[in-house]
Design goal:
Protein name: Glycine/D-amino acid oxidase-like deaminating enzyme
Largest sheet: 8 strands, mixed
Organism: Thermomonospora umbrina
Helix content: 25-40%
Number of strands: 20
Distance between the termini: 30 Å
Strand order of the largest sheet: 6-7-5-15-16-17-14-18
Low-confidence stretches: none
CATH class of the largest domain: Alpha Beta
InterPro entries: FAD-dep_OxRdtase, FAD/NAD-bd_sf
Structural class: alpha+beta
Number of domains: 2
Bound molecules: flavin-adenine dinucleotide
Order of helices and strands: EHEEHEEHEHEEHEEEEEHEEEEHHEEEH
GO molecular function, one term: oxidoreductase activity
Keywords: Oxidoreductase
CATH architecture of the largest domain: 3-Layer(bba) Sandwich
Mean pLDDT: 96
Radius of gyration: 21 Å
Number of helices: 9
Strand content: 25-35%
Length: 371
């Protein structure tokens, strides 16, 4: 039996562990609890909504189907939330972008509709969408509670005899030009195949084997990989599903509050932004949420503010495949959308001599990549 070591129990590593555990000897190592990295801070919108590249669009649509199949196979877990997405726009430019996007998506066979105010109210009764807004609905889109999903995948992998090790990997272990596992502070784990699924920290691990991953450096001032989310205390029934307003994205959290994010605030945050500024941005997010949910948040306040880091490949596309003999990597933005689909394809190519054709455009050594 092949021993596969997966570094990282975020959504990518966890979904892969669940897939592989039935056939292989799997060890997962993470320095923290499953899903506690980027996965646990994600808006976690499962979609192919803003994807002009036709091949990547199809890949993401397949990923949406893979989620539906995975959720059905797992008995429709409560952390998979099939409530769709409402979006609205007000300025002439934004209205035109939204109506064009809906038209193009419909032409590609994607479920997308423009709604009347009454239709939108029937979906989200507490939402005060401005009267002059153009509203769109994407009924096949979903969201997940990322940390719970990762924990559930890992629990299932463990039931299939996978091992979970808590510890920080300090370096990859190389002998005779082949990666043969990883070194932790208190020992080594040897493996036939090592999969680096360490999210935005993948480059630092690959560097220990003199390999590079084309992932943006979050330490640069103003790095787009760095963003901010706030969560609220419980606000029962405030929102049923995910919404994209003009200056706020929001969705329910697993414990009955809301998760709040905004593109302009993400753009204003980096790793040097002081805590006091992060807190004031969180208050701003809360004010925006109150504006669209006027009475539903009367008894709610900001519960937590988290600076978070997206794994952002340089060209925006997933980075998936062999990096060195014995070393495979899987790192991507939209990792929530893609995880079950990637897990199925990666499991297929790790357990057979034939590469998975749908992954070919996303190889680490593709043209333009520094690897
Ligand atoms: C605010 C925000 C909004 C987002 N919105 C969406 C969205 O709407 N839809 C979507 O699809 N995607 C979205 N994303 C992106 C998505 O969340 C990520 O692509 C995905 O969560 C990445 O998962 P991962 O498993 O690769 O990484 P992670 O979840 O970061 O997991 C990596 C794991 O590796 C572990 N690790 C790292 N280095 C080591 C080491 N040396 N030793 C031991 N363990 C290590 C970490 O502890 C971590 O648990 C969003 C991200 C953010 C931050």
């Amino acid at each position: 039996m092949t021993h596969v070591l997966i570094i990282g129990a975020g959504i990518i590593g966890a979904a892969l562990a669940e897939r592989l555990a039935a056939t292989d000897h799997v060890t997962v190592v993470d320095e923290g609890p499953p899903g506690d990295g980027t996965t646990g801070t994600s808006l976690a919108w499962i979609n192919a909504n803003k994807t002009p590249d036709p091949d990547y669009f199809r890949f993401r649509v397949q990923a949406m189907r893979a989620w539906a199949e995975t959720a059905a196979r797992m008995g429709h877990p409560p952390w998979y939330v099939p409530t769709g997405d409402l979006a609205w726009a007000r300025t002439p430019t934004a209205r035109s972008e939204l109506s064009t996007r809906v038209r193009h998506l419909k032409e590609r066979g994607y479920a997308a509709d423009l709604l009347t105010a009454d239709e939108a109210r029937a979906i989200e009764p507490h939402l005060a969408i401005p009267a002059d807004a153009l509203v769109a609905h994407f009924p096949d889109e979903r969201h997940v509670h990322g940390a719970r999903a990762a924990r559930d995948f890992i629990a299932r992998a463990r039931r299939a005899k996978a091992h979970m090790v808590t510890g920080r990997v300090e370096s990859l272990d190389i002998h005779a030009g082949r990666v043969r596992g990883a070194r932790l502070a208190d020992g080594a784990i040897s493996a036939d195949i090592t999969v680096c699924a360490a999210g935005w920290r993948t480059p630092e691990l690959l560097a220990t084997a003199d390999a590079v991953a084309p992932i943006q450096d979050p330490h640069r001032p103003g790095a787009p990989a760095v963003c901010l989310v706030a969560t609220t205390t419980p606000a029962p029934g405030a929102l049923r599903g995910l919404v994209h307003g003009t200056d706020l994205y929001a969705r329910p959290t697993a414990d009955g509050g809301l998760l709040l994010e905004a593109g302009d605030i993400d753009a204003a945050v980096d790793l040097d932004t002081p805590r006091s500024v992060l807190d004031s941005w969180a208050d701003d997010l809360m004010a925006r949420a109150r504006a669209i949910l006027p009475s539903a948040l009367d008894h709610s306040r900001v519960a937590a503010v988290r600076r978070c880091i997206r794994p952002l490949p340089d060209d925006g596309l997933p980075v998936v495949g062999w990096v060195l003999p014995g070393l495979y990597t899987a790192v991507t933005h939209s990792g929530i959308t893609l995880a079950p689909h990637l897990a199925a394809l990666i499991a297929e190519e790790l357990t057979s001599p034939t590469p998975a054709a749908p992954l070919e455009p996303y190889r680490p050594h593709r043209p333009g990549s520094p690897t």
